[in-house]
Amino acid sequence: MARPITNAGERVASKERKLEALLRGMTREMELYEKLSGNKVRCFACGHRCAIPDDRAGVCRVRFNKEGRLFGPTGYASALQLDPIEKKPFFHALPGTLAFSFGMLGCDFHCGYCQNWITSQTLRDPQAGHDPVRVSPDQMVEGARRHGALTLTSTYNEPLITSEWAVEAFKRGRAAGLATSCVSNGNGTPEVIDYLRPWVDFYKVDLKSFNPDGYRQLGGKLDHVLATIAMLYERGFWVEIVTLVVSGFNDSEAELREIARFIKSVSADIPWHVTAFHRDYKMTDRNDTSTRQIIRAAEIGYAEGLRFVYAGNRPGETGELENTRCPGCGETLIERCGFQILQDRLQAGGCPKCGIRIPGVWRVEDLPAARQCRRRDTPKLDIAAIVEEARRKFAKA
Ligand code: SF4
Are 208 and 185 in contact (CB under 8 A)? Predict the structure, then answer.
């Protein structure tokens, strides 16, 4: 007869085992993998490129090898929510509209300050985990349409590790006239970016650090993220980048300057959001980021030549740094407070004063042209050399 569970540790372990069994029941064979010898598989949904033996899972814990075939999540959501698209954050994509957001469980990183750790760290941290709800792509699209959302967004956990599910939903969303987007850590591969390209309009990447050691602490690699940003831009996704500024982790002037320089080397037109950290999850040993720090970070971005830099998570405290201004004449074009649009003066995507076009996907009518976009003017970047230089610059004495 089974022994009753009496202590807290055993109860947590039992809960995790049950959740794992439940999630295994909501899987199908994946597409982003290849078969290797000896019943192994190699997954290329994210930059880890796990080689997974039979009956084992990858680093993300939610994709696993069963008898020489790779299985992964399908048919559920851990969260469904209606958000302003500015919360993702996208500031140059359908401003003032709603994004119907869905998430699954699991992540390929383990950031100590994750604000979605209950969903992202499932099956890695016994305290994490959230009951999944069975849902179909059609139900999510119907939810988006019923609530007037214009965009369907994969978020809350890492979208790359659940790319096949996102594409199922995005295909239905596109057919219903919706835009589509991912909110991602950017640990991509050429294969997954090409797989997503026909179905994804807007892509947000967290560029969390420019220090290879910093990325190692989070479970990732700087070069994968830099390469992903360059690939996304080249292939014509609308890209915005976020850096959560964390005291003592990535807030040195040198590191913020390197991040801004890198973004500019891809394109000065990519919006950079510098956002304020607050204590969360395992990172409770440092102060919340101050308004002054965020303003300074944004000023560094502008000084390095970026044309659109936004200060986030301090609504109403950073003046013009929440607004979109014309890089030609300085006119305020979109005035914001947090995620709210106070005024939108753009005229057909251009400045009403000097007439220059502001990069972005401003209206639903712009989507067909954005979907055709392939950029040929992207400089070829030597990512390995950039990372080696960063390693040298930020190496601890
Ligand atoms: S998604 Fe990434 S972490 Fe998960 S199995 Fe595939 S390569 Fe590994």
Answer: yes
Q: What is d(CA 356, CA 365) in angstroms, rounded to the nearest whole number?
A: 19
Rounded CA gap, 135 and 172, in Å? 13
Between the CA of 64 and the centroid of ligand 1 the distance, in Å, is: 9
Based on the domain organization, do 27 and 151 belong to the same domain? no
Q: Which among 50, 55, 160, 224 is the best mutation to test ligand 1's pocket, defined by most ligand atoms within 8 Å of the CB? A: 50
The pLDDT tens digits for 298-310 are: 999 999 999 999 9
Predicted TM-score of the model (pTM): 0.94
Whether residues 246 and 354 share a domain: the answer is yes
Is 394 within the bounds of a domain? no
Atom of ligand 1 nearest to the CA of 64: 5
Report which ligand 1 atom has the smallest distance to the Cα of 62.
4
Please work out whether the CB of residue 263 comes within 6 Å of at least one atom of ligand 1. no
Average per-residue pLDDT in the chain? 93
Does ligand 1 lie within 6 Å of residue 63's CB atom? Answer: yes
Q: What is the token pair recorded at 249?
A: 């982790």
Q: How many angstroms does the Cα of residue 191 sit away from the middle of ligand 1? A: 13
How many A from CA of 11 to the centre of ligand 1? Answer: 28
Atom 6 of ligand 1, nearest CA residue: 43
Looking at the structure, tell me whether residues 147 and 208 fall in a common domain.
yes
Domains contained in the chain, number: 2
Do 42 and 163 lie in a common domain? no
Do 277 and 245 form a contact (C-beta atoms < 8 A)? Answer: yes
Same-domain pairing of 118 and 250 = yes
Give the residue whose CA is nearest to atom 4 of ligand 1.
Answer: 60
Distance 130 CA to ligand 1 centre (A): 20
Cis peptide before 89 (omega within 30 of 0): yes
pLDDT at residue 4 is higher than 70: no
The domain in which residue 27 lies consists of 18-73
